[in-house]
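TOKENISE THE FOLD
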Amino acid sequence: MDWDKLELNPRIIAAVRRVKLKSLREVLCVSGPDLQRLTGLSRSDVQQLLSVAATAYRRHPPCPALLLHHGESRRFDSGLRLSVGCAVLDELLRGGLPVGGVTELSGESGAGKTQLALQLCLSVQYPTQYRGLNSGAVFICTEDSFPIRRLQQLIRDQSCLRSDVPPSLISSLQFSDHVYIEHAADLDSLQECLSRRVPLLLARGVVRLLVVDSVAALFRSEFQAADWLERNKQLLTFSSKLHHLSMEFSTPVLCINQVKDVFSSSDNILGPLSSSMCPALGLAWANQVMVRLMMRRIQGTVARGDQTSALRRLEVVFAPHLPRDGRDAAVWKEGVRGVTSR
């Protein structure tokens, strides 16, 4: 990268070169506070660096990795979808999650991300005529224990959520027998799981959905700010494995991600414009996902019978086949449902 062509103070350019940041993408992969620690620059200098880098980056943004992977972008325009189990949210996603791609769902704690992931673990088990994939799911936990009680509650209330499915079919499905739970406490165990056990389940046809909850936990805990280059290499290795599994077995992959506070307006170039937060792990990860969704709490509550729920908003941040749009949602006993009117 020829930093001299950018309108930056020579002192800022010298600091960037000193820590061997060689491209705009590498700069934008590092958060503002981490850039301050790495370079020794002031907050205002880092804000100027991020602003100039983001402006230059927008002129020639890269396509998400999967757009370049075997020319697969066309398959997302008209292909098989996995329903999320709600007609309102399916409408937002044009039928649901694309089969054969990596979808990221980010949001703060309590937004409903894991709830929606559990819902998909049940939806995938329905026959294709009910927008399922007639198979099971593997759920990899990287930070918290698996929410088995919530899954059991969702199973008990499936007839309420899926009124489009005959009750006799719902009662015949042994949902809990087809959700395979894995725990990965570190990156080595995660790679072991993705290299051995998950491919075996996929090859046998017993699962057609892979969930990782969450992708940020291990990469945030195992690397310090100065290790950003090694972290990005590990991220690329991880995402490459996810793409391979997704394409080889025509399997939707859902990665739940954490969020961080926006350091400046330029730090939110791949997050919702209406939010004060953006997904964690920066552009190194953002360029590896095909669909980025964000779920967040918004002001207000909604009531139904004896239940009340805080309002949520599910938004499409980017996708090759979807416009940037969103739907309000609420979390009920039976699962996450879109809210059509308040």
The mean pLDDT is 86.
